[in-house]
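Q: My collaborator sent me two sequences in one message, no labels, and asked for predicted structures for both. Can we handle them in order? The first one she listed is below.
A: Yes, handling them in the order given. First sequence, followed by its C-alpha cells:
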Amino acid sequence: MPSLNQRIRARLPFATYSPEDRKIIAVCFAIAFFFWLLVKLSKDYVLHEVLELHYELPMGRAFSTEPPRQVSIELGGTGWSLLGARLPARHLKLELSVGEAPVFSLSPFELETRLAELLGNRITIRQLNFATVRIPLELRAQKTLPVVLQHQLRFAAGYSLMRPIEIEPDSVTVEGPASKLAELQYIRTDSLRLEPLKQSVDRTIGLQNTTPGLRVFPAQVRVRISVEQITEKTLYVPVQIVNAPTADSIHIFPSKVLVKCIVGLSRYSELSPEDFVLVADLEQTYRKDGRNSVPLELRGQPHYVRNVSYTPQAAEFFLVEESEE
C-alpha cells in the first residue's frame, strides 16, 4: 500500500519536479501573464464616472439658486491610458472660478474643455450629461434663527416633565443667499420620538436643512429632557377679595378652598397655598337661592403644576355695616 507521502506526490505532479524545473515553470507563467496583461490593457474601454463640481465664489457672494454639483460622464481610452490617469480609483473633481460677473454661466463646451485639461489627451470624453446653466449671483448674508424641536413624547404612567425641554444652543446661525434667508423663521430638528418615557434623556440631534445653498452651523443641537415621577397634592388656599364695595366688614364663606393639582416629586414639599391666587371678584356677584354668591377664579399658579382643580367654584359673602348710635 503506498504511503501518504506517495499519494500526495501522485496528486501533485509538480511536487515530483526538481527545484530547477519548478523555477522554469514559474518564469513561464510570469511571462504568459505579462503578455496576457499587455493584450488586455491595449484594448479600448469605456468608463462611467461622476464628476464633482466645486465653485470658488467671490467674497460675500452667493448663488441665487443651487448650481449642479455632480455630472455623469462617460470616458474612453485604452487600459494603459486609464491606468495611467489612475482611473477608476481617482476621485474626479473640478474647481471652477465663478468670477465677479453678476450672472455665472457655464456651457457644456466650457465644461468639457476644462475636463479635457484635467484628464489629458490620452483619454476621450465620450459623453457629458450637462446643460448650460446661467445663475445670478446675490449677496451672501447671515441670520440667527431659533431651533424648533420636532418631538413626540409619551410618558409612562406616573411620569412627566420635571422642567421645560432644554435645547442647547436654542438658536443657530444660517448663511446663504439673502433672498432665501428672508423666507426662514426657524430651523427644525430631526424628529425625536420617545415612548414610554420614564427616565431623563440627554442626546445630540441633527438639524434639518431643506433649502439648497444654505449652511447651518452648528449642524446639531443638544436636547435635554428631564423626567420625574408625579403625584397629586391637595392644599387649602385662602380666597382673596377684590373690588369690594364700601362696608364696615366683609365676610366670605368659605374663606379657604380645597385645591388639587398634579406636581412632580422634586417640587412636592415646596408647593404651598401661597403659590396660588384664588380670587373672589365682588363686581361679578349674583343671587342664588336668596344668597349673595360670587364665582371664584384661579388667577395664579406655579408653572410646574398641572390639572389644577378647586372646589367649591363659588362662595357666599356678607356685607356688614355697624349701626350708628
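Q: And the one she listed second?
A: Here it is, processed independently of the first:
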Amino acid sequence: MTVTELAFIELNPPHRYHHHLFPERFHKIGTWQAEASTHPVCFFTDPKNPATICVVAGWRDAEHHKEL
C-alpha cells in the first residue's frame, strides 16, 4: 500500500526557506528522494511563517520507506 509522508520542518531564526542555501539543498534532497521512492516530493512554505516548511512525499510501501 502506498504511504504518504507528511513532515514539518521548523528552521531556527534567522533562517527562512528563501535563504540562499535552502532552496538548492531542498531541491537536491527532494530529487534524491523522488528517484528513490518513485514518487514526487513537494515543499511548501507559509508566507506568514517562512521558517516552517511542509514536505509531502510518497513511498511505494512502508517497507520501502524503512529500507531507505
